[in-house]
Amino acid sequence: MSRRSGILEFAILGLLRESPMHGYELRKRLNTSLGVFRAFSYGTLYPCLKTLVANGWLIEEPGSTPEDALAASLTGRRAKIVYRLTADGKERFEELLSQTGPDAYEDETFAARFAFFGQTERDVRMRVLEGRRSRLEERLEKMRASFARTRERLDDYTLELQRHGMESVEREVRWLNELIESERAGRDRRSAPGSGAQQDTSGETGGLPRHGGSTRPDPSDDTSK
User: Biased composition, Basic and acidic residues: where in the chain (predicted)?
Assistant: First the structure.
């Protein structure tokens, strides 16, 4: 299975864990919530759904609303199929959610993993964030070395493009640093002596900075400094 197919499987299972959906709803949620899937089509979605059904992780049910049934009877078309997560599917999603290796934080997969951090245990979130930061720090070091070697031979526009790339990576590293520190602070508050609460390793976002309460850059804002 390719990395893209694997992250699509993960995202479908995660969305269906929230509630059953038919194919149109799934595609809409994947497009609007997870940027990595903005360009994918029904020709990609439905083969993946069929595979998940064959594996026993999803079941297909006819559309359950009266409107769906009426529309199907009037048009002679097949009723919409609703996909529902099975117990085995929930177990499979939990297995994928707990993974912290490189597939969790590479460019193609990190956004989808981050989108489900609310359902991810705190220790797993930390390992994924730290893995992503380490990977980007390695990339930044290589970019800086390459820039130093080639800057005398490149024209101004190529140099500006390289600077832009380095600044984008630097911004994400700063963002990750703030997320990691916030996660640590939230965990420390829950495990501090006298706090009256045990350490929280659930999917709650405890120490995550909220909008208006943090100066961390927006990762989608390529113009922020």
Answer: 182-191
Helices (H), 55-200: 66-75, 87-97, 110-115, 122-150, 156-191
In Å, how far are 29, 42, 158, 165 from 33, measured between CA atoms? 6, 17, 33, 25
Count other Cβ atoms within 10 Å, centred on residue 38.
9
Contact 207, 186 (CB under 8 A): yes
How many angstroms separate the first and last alpha carbons of the chain? 38
For residue 59, list its beta bridge partners.
84
What is the DSSP code (8-state) at residue 222? Answer: T
- Cα distance between residue 199 and residue 209, in whole Å: 19
Q: Is the dihedral of CA 34, 35, 40, 41 positive or negative?
A: positive
* Residue in 139, 212, 204, 216 with CA at minimum distance from that of residue 179: 216
pLDDT band at 2; cut points 50, 70, 90: low
Give the span between the Cα atoms of 172 and 162, in whole angstroms: 16
**Cβ pair 59, 53 in contact under 8 A:** yes
Q: Are 45 and 85 in contact (CB under 8 A)?
A: no
3-state secondary structure of 198: coil
Within 10 A of 204 (CB to CB), how many other CB atoms are there?
13
3-97 fold = Arc Repressor Mutant, subunit A (1.10.10)
Residue count of the chain? 225
DSSP code, position 37? G
For 108-137, the pLDDT digits (tens) are 889 989 999 999 999 999 999 999 999 999
